[in-house]
Amino acid sequence: MKRPVLCGVGVGPGDPELLTLKAVRVLREADFVFVSASTKNEYSLALRVAAEYIPPERPIEHLPFPMTRDREKLEQAWEENARKVVEKLRVFSKVVFLTMGDPALYSTFGYLARWVRRLYPKVEIRMIPGITAAQAAAARFNLILTEGEEAFVLASGLAAEEVLKKFAGEKTSFALYKVYRRAPEIIEILRQTERLKDARAISWCGFPEEIIYEDATKISGSTPPYFTLLLVGGKALD
Amino acid sequence: MKRPVLCGVGVGPGDPELLTLKAVRVLREADFVFVSASTKNEYSLALRVAAEYIPPERPIEHLPFPMTRDREKLEQAWEENARKVVEKLRVFSKVVFLTMGDPALYSTFGYLARWVRRLYPKVEIRMIPGITAAQAAAARFNLILTEGEEAFVLASGLAAEEVLKKFAGEKTSFALYKVYRRAPEIIEILRQTERLKDARAISWCGFPEEIIYEDATKISGSTPPYFTLLLVGGKALD
């Protein structure tokens, strides 16, 4: 018997046209689709992005993931959700989990897949890469992120200070995710490391709700939307 | 009159299924297609990846880019190639340039587009993001590159030493491109920074010629193919 497959599918940053052909095929061929959702409601952004590529008869289940940093609560949610996935893997041979962006980069998929593997060792795990919000934002700003011997760093806003200081005085470009609640501190760090003039901010990149901030410091006035990122550095083509 | 558009289209890492739907649409709608090629022959890898999505009647021109680090020769090639692009932009409204991976990350597109802008200021520049080889390699190895507050660094092998040393002792993951002629030195740096055990090497990721090295040090025996990269760190799902 063939091993049942759990496939993490990256649906990209928000624009449904930025799915890959492979992601679209895998969605079409899947037996069962899981999506992550807030515990507060049944809403899934990844499903909103990919919905048009999922055949209408395909069963879809929302897995609630709490927005918390409490490790115990998270582990409990991952285990409970992994149990639901394993239940389907015992029945269906192709189960997918949708994730925004890319499953290898800041996705819930890794946590879920490790728990599934633990509970059901014979599962085969696959990943379908997706365009990241950083790449979409670079395209939106006509910005070359890295050339020649330069580096590009994808970092969490929660660790922005350490990462930016390592590259102080260099041309390295950055994408900072999760700037959310720490926006004022991050703007201040950018000011201190003299990178504020190179910073561009965008919320909901690629979604109809997209906001481009003419001045990156504008994100520090109030808490920006969850899907807000900063690009620092790079060379604009305009 | 509408501004003529030069669009840099990322065709992804090598697997034709990893183009985005948007890239496929833009190729279908383009009036003229440019591809980069070696000066030694007319061969273009990006064209090989995307060929099936380009309508057969569409004109395609190869732009020779020398594989050199001689700045003067490079500037001359960019200018000459930009002149050819401008010639087409005077006639056609949608001109595309194909690039492997993503146009914002280590692509020839930035150099070309800046020269085109200089010679023909009214051009509108657009970029279509593409899956990078690093993302495809992570998917190939079932590897989560970054979670939580960790960072991910995309760096050139030519600057591997400085970048790896900045993150010594940390969990940060890396993709090192352009390991090519410096493979033995890079393996030695990974050994010194105690990251060799976390390193995975792959050549031609996603192409039929793909080579996965069971042991990353194998790339240091002889010069590996140009499209060789190292992933360092991350968490395997297997």
TrEMBL record, chains A, B:
Q: What is its EC number?
A: 2.1.1.130
Task: Determine if Flavoprotein is one of this entry's keywords.
Answer: no
Q: Give the Tetrapyrrole methylase domain ranges.
A: 6-214
Alphabetically, the GO molecular function entries are: precorrin-2 C20-methyltransferase activity
Q: List GO BP terms, alphabetically.
A: cobalamin biosynthetic process; methylation
Coiled coil regions, renumbered to chain: none
- Statement: the UniProt record of this protein carries the keyword Methyltransferase: yes
UniProt keyword terms in alphabetical order: Cobalamin biosynthesis, Methyltransferase, S-adenosyl-L-methionine, Transferase
Show the InterPro entries listed in the entry: 4pyrrol_Mease, 4pyrrol_Methylase_sf, 4pyrrole_Mease_sub1, 4pyrrole_Mease_sub2, CobI/CbiL, CobI/CbiL/CobIJ_dom
Pathway connected to this protein: Cofactor biosynthesis; adenosylcobalamin biosynthesis
- Give one Pfam family: TP_methylase
- Protein name in the entry: Cobalt-precorrin-2 C20-methyltransferase
